[in-house]
Amino acid sequence: MEVKIGVQYAPRELVIESSQSSAEVEKSVTEAIANEGTLSLVDEKGRRLIIPVSKLAYVEIAESSPRSVGFTAR
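Above: the chain sequence. Below: its structure as tokens.
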């Protein structure tokens, strides 16, 4: 699962690959916003990302798409 997070006053979005399902990520985001605390997600390599909810601009959840390598004909 690919998760893109926009943070206020940050020029670039944060992008992580998570092994969680989209429903689990959405539940984590919704609970964090409801509790006005922090959003905590873990990527596929076990790194933890913690963001204060007050600084969130947006969260985009999408299925990971396989990346093509080299030259391919379409």
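Residues 28 and 41 are 8 Å apart (CA to CA).
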